[in-house]
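Practice problem 4.
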């Protein structure tokens, strides 16, 4: 199902009993976080919240703020327009079953072809609802001096009922020690200057003033690679950021699609309707016509980088200031009745756990084409995306668990994984207690573990150097003689099925 606006998605959530409206004014400075955090910590992820009157420095914003809209398995499936995320995954997997690929690159190439064939290719539209209100700004002269270290986040100038600057939007200051306000669900569009390939990624943005923001694309992300090419040539880099529209967009912006494969193909496929794209007012990039808010601008490679942060992050800790490019705004366009979608990250579980879990499920059939022995994968909430991965496999030969660990560490954003625990097929990787039981019972620590080195998540504060880390893999599968275990492996304690049924029957009769 294709949603034509964020408001339409919110309506669907409300009808499904998944949305709570908050009509009393709530401050974008910390108060919305506290309410949303309590909601996200409820069993199953609580409700989506529509804050009808968010306030910015005490004044009510013209636009409502939606949060936790993808923060449960059901809402995540609804955002994808699917009955369940599993159903969407099976369908996506079946698209590329026709020809067995020889490796992950070929798998993704096949996926790209299949998505294109499914009429998922984006279409060009002349205009769209995202252009109902248009504000253009003069491009400021590039800065040559270093930036001041702290932005003046409280200078909100005038609050326009039709927002014209960043400071008019209900952008959150999420946590007490945050360095300012952050746009937390931005869909960022960039283009590879060499190939013309488009990328859609989600990289948070710290508001510096009414017309500039930090662009927090991390070192290993696709937009950062695009950016480096502009820094090589010194050419101005066009960037377009949009919020809202179909909720499938923010999901696709976070999905680990390989570099070079357009996320709008995946979006078109999932919503079963090509995404209509319109050209920006002040650069040549395109954004979805049905977006709620579009922020156009550029990055000037001749300018110094500027400190971004601190920010209360996915890791549960503040990420300390680090230098990032400055995004200068040349236009803001939006619907007359735009909704501002947001999220918060912090100590898990949070809304992003459900987004990450959906990505894992969706890409599982593709992963299995390269690693057919994989039964299931879980990224438990405590591991905040990359830190901890549980994998179950159908093991048929010695050292297979190590093949899986090495394969995963070499694959896209799985490179960030600190700990991988491999278990046998009968262990439920979504049950952390079962995995820990297996880890403790089925390993001899030195024999069954491997340390290796690799790129680390730049958010990881525990590594000695930023973005450089070590990894630990543990083989918690049943050991084979060739793996150094020459003793008899004992059976796991299990009751006979017939006895279980008899006792079930007895207990049922007693009720
Ligand atoms: C809520 C949320 C916020 C995120 N913020 C950032 C961020 O600030 N910087 C970043 O590099 N990745 C961030 N990510 C992860 C990226 O969106 C993700 O790695 C994505 O696949 C990147 O796209 P790319 O591979 O096209 O670069 C965030 C993810 C979520 C769910």
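Answer key:
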């Amino acid at each position: 199902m294709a949603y034509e606006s964020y408001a339409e998605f919110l309506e669907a959530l409300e009808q499904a009993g998944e949305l709570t409206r908050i009509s009393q004014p709530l401050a974008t400075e910390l108060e919305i976080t506290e309410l949303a955090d309590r909601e996200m910590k409820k069993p199953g992820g609580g409700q989506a919240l529509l804050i009808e009157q968010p306030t910015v420095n005490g004044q009510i914003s013209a636009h409502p703020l939606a949060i936790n809209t993808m923060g449960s398995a059901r809402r995540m499936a609804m955002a994808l327009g699917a009955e369940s995320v599993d159903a969407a995954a099976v369908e996506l997997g079946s698209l590329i079953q026709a020809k067995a690929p020889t490796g992950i690159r070929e798998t993704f190439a096949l996926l790209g072809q299949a998505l294109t064939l499914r009429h998922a290719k984006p279409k060009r539209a002349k205009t769209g609802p995202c252009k109902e209100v248009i504000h253009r700004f003069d491009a400021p002269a590039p800065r040559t001096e270093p930036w001041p270290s702290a932005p003046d986040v409280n200078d909100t100038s005038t609050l326009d009922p039709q927002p014209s600057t960043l400071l008019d939007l209900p952008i959150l200051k999420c946590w007490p020690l945050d360095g300012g306000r952050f746009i937390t669900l931005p869909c960022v569009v960039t283009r590879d200057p060499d190939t013309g390939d488009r990328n859609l990624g989600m990289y948070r943005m710290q508001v510096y003033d009414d017309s500039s923001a930090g662009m927090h694309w991390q070192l290993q992300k696709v937009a950062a690679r695009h950016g480096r090419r502009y820094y090589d040539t010194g050419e101005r880099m066009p960037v377009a950021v949009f919020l809202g529209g179909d909720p499938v967009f923010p999901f696709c912006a976070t999905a680990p699609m390989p570099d070079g494969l357009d996320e709008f193909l995946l979006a078109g496929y999932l919503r079963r309707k090509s995404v209509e794209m319109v050209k920006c007012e002040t650069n040549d990039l395109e954004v979805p016509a049905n977006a709620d808010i579009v922020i156009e601008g550029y990055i000037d490679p001749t300018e110094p980088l500027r400190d971004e942060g601190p920010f209360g992050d996915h890791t549960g800790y503040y990420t300390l200031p680090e230098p990032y490019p400055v995004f200068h705004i040349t236009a803001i366009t939006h619907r007359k009745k735009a909704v501002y979608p947001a999220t918060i990250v912090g100590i898990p579980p949070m809304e992003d756990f459900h987004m990450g879990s959906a990505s894992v499920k969706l890409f599982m059939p593709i992963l299995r084409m390269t690693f057919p022995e994989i039964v299931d994968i879980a990224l438990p909430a405590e591991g905040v995306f990359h830190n901890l991965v549980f994998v179950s496999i159908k093991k048929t030969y010695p050292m297979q668990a190590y093949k899986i660990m090495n394969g995963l560490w070499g694959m896209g954003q799985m490179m960030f994984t600190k700990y991988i625990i491999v278990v046998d097929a009968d262990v439920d990787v979504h049950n952390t207690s079962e995995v820990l039981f297996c880890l403790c019972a089925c390993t001899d620590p030195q024999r069954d573990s491997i340390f290796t080195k690799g790129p680390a998540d730049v958010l990881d504060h525990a590594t000695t150097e930023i973005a450089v880390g070590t990894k630990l893999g543990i083989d918690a599968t049943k050991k084979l003689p060739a793996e150094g275990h020459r003793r008899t492996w004992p059976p796991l304690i299990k009751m006979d099925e017939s006895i279980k049924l008899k006792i079930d029957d007895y207990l049922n009769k007693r009720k």
